[in-house]
Amino acid sequence: MTLDEGRRVRLATEIRLFDPVAVADDRSSEPAAAFTGSLSLAAGTEGTVERAVEHHQQSGAVREYVRLKSLLDDFGRDMPAESKGRLEEQVRSLEPEWIAHERRGPVTTVRVRFDNGFILDEVPDSLFVPLTSG
Q1: Least C-beta-crowded within 10 Å: which of 9, 28, 75, 132?
Q2: Is the separation of the CB atoms in 20 and 32 below 8 Å?
Q3: Is 51 helix (H, G, I), strand (E, B) or coil?
């Protein structure tokens, strides 16, 4: 499911965010105290998609498959039989990685501004359920 900018959404699951915070005491020469704070956003929190970005992530094996397959398709007919056979074997060995990549498809991340003012950015769109209009 791809979410478009401007789409109203609902958070599908509770999310808990953690971040270390250093607090300095100006009255002391002691080093700043470090705390870890957390923020939870409840499932069902509604907001609006401000940005959606589709990422086409490729592993090294997928890039190598594309490169070798292109080489085979473009020049295979003119290659010596032994070289062509080695290239075909390399392509076959990388094919499972390519098939898995095709099944996964692109990953879409979104920036959502919740009605309470909080913003959640660069998270998978799968964390949200689109609201129906009406």
Answers
A1: 132
A2: no
A3: strand
